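[recover] target loaded
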């Protein structure tokens, strides 16, 4: 049975934090592959409309594909971008389960999402469809997190694993701000992604 990590995100743009988290999870959980799933229109972030110099969902998909193309264990899938409209994680996970009944899915998230996931659409169906893997900062006080996990287990029967992860302070927000201010984003994201951003003129004022 294949063990597949699902790395969901807006990926606006994808960066080394996403890639290193995926790699750490692949190694720690002996995953066969990690699939990156860029969101379509994101109801939480309002991304998807073609606002000025912002990539379209198709372009975020292409950027993410460029970032993972040199890793045979990583794939970028268009399941949410193709669906169009608002994208909900539970729909994606249920669709994957239906299409690949022989695979076991692990949904990878940063610690921040552990605290918000309850407020996502149909959290019970998210927990039914996958095992959750939450990346925690190494050495961080795990108490609050364990309490949250216990709560989610009691309420939803959630299966949640903590993944010790480095503290890598990098975000898409920071990358967009750097581009806007004309500062370097070298080494924050793969070279192929930087070239694509430059070529398309994303995030500039
Ligand atoms: P933004 O700044 O626009 O919010 P982001 O960098 O947080 O973007 P997202 O696409 O929102 O990226 O995140 C997708 C997933 O990656 C989430 O589960 C998030 O917790 C995780 N993630 C993002 N940045 C990091 C990081 N530096 N280290 C570990 N996990 C991360
Ligand atoms: Mg974020």
């Amino acid at each position: 049975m294949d063990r597949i990590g699902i790395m969901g995100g807006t990926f606006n743009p994808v960066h080394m934090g996403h890639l290193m988290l995926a790699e750490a999870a692949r190694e720690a959980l002996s995953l066969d592959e990690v699939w990156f799933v860029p969101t379509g229109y994101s109801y939480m972030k309002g991304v998807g409309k073609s606002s000025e110099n912002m990539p379209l969902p198709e372009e975020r998909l292409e950027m993410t594909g460029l970032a993972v193309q040199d890793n045979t264990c990583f794939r970028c899938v268009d399941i949410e971008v193709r669906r169009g409209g608002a994208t909900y994680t539970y729909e994606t996970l249920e669709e994957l389960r239906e299409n690949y009944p022989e695979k076991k899915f692990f949904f990878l998230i940063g610690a921040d999402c552990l605290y918000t996931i309850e407020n996502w659409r149909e959290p019970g169906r998210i927990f039914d469809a996958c095992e959750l893997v939450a990346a925690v900062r190494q050495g961080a006080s795990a108490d609050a997190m364990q309490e949250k996990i216990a709560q989610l287990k009691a309420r939803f029967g959630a299966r949640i694993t903590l993944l010790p992860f480095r503290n890598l302070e990098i975000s898409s927000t920071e990358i967009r701000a750097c581009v806007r201010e004309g500062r370097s984003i070298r080494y924050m994201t793969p070279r192929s992604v930087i070239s694509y951003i430059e070529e398309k003129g994303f995030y500039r004022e």
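[recover] notes: Residues 143-156 form the longest helix (14 residues).
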